[in-house]
Design goal:
The chain is about 5% helix and about 40% strand. With about 220 residues, the chain is mostly beta strands. The longest helix is centred in the middle third of the chain and has 6 residues. The relative contact order is 0.26.
Length: about 220
């Protein structure tokens, strides 16, 4: 393997045991199968990812490949970031074998085919601070007789033993904005010409969110 300063812009990256790619969630639609049945599907725009850095055990203590997605404008990134890479989103993936990987190589949609099972990772929609009824599906309190506990939780701890609130008790808290992985989704269509993936079912995140698709 050559040093990370060597570039091979546009060259195809070596094959991986479990190919992966970064993309952007465009939204959901109905996909009609050949037998006439219809399923809900998610469309992902995955333009070719670029290898931006290669880490070696000798230099960094572990082996990994950093890939970038989405070209950024000059005003969207700082000068130090521009010197490293002009990509808007960067992810680092640890690999046991990094032989053949060099900076500037590309990873495209053609590594996936209809019928492949994939794991999709993204950041779920943020719902803000939510109460226990919405967050944990607690039952509501009485609606009448002057009750002021309609959407509150009940008792949270004993007054004597142990005399404190136990850790892990379900309460009101922040909901969403978590890293979520949905496993074993099926690819319905792969379009290398338009850099699109159509995946059965829903995936984490809002529209235009960045997701990582990896073969199961």
């Amino acid at each position: 393997m050559t040093d990370e300063t060597t570039t091979k812009n546009g060259a195809k990256a070596p094959d991986m045991a479990k190919p992966l790619i970064l993309g952007r969630k465009l939204g959901m639609l109905q996909h009609f199968k050949s037998d006439g049945s219809v399923v809900a599907a998610t469309v992902i725009a995955a333009e070719p990812n670029v290898v931006t850095y290669v880490r070696t055990r000798e230099r960094d203590g572990y082996s990994a490949v950093q890939i970038g997605f989405g070209k950024a404008g000059e005003r969207e990134i700082t000068k130090p970031e521009r010197g490293h890479s002009a990509m808007r989103h960067l992810r680092e993936i640890r690999l046991d074998d990094i032989s053949g990987f060099e900076k500037g190589q590309e990873i495209a949609v053609d590594r996936f085919a209809p019928g492949d099972k994939v794991h999709v990772t993204g950041v779920s929609k943020g719902k803000g601070f939510q109460g226990p009824v919405h967050l944990h599906h607690f039952h509501t309190g009485p609606r009448s007789h002057g009750s002021d506990h309609y959407r509150r939780q009940g008792s949270v701890g004993a007054g004597t033993t142990p005399g404190r609130v136990l850790k892990g008790l379900r309460m009101a808290s922040h909901q969403g904005a978590d890293r979520v992985t949905v496993k074993n989704l099926v690819i319905l269509k792969a379009d290398p010409e338009r850099s699109l993936l159509v995946i059965a079912g829903a995936i984490p995140g809002a529209r235009n969110g960045i997701v990582m698709v990896r073969k199961a």
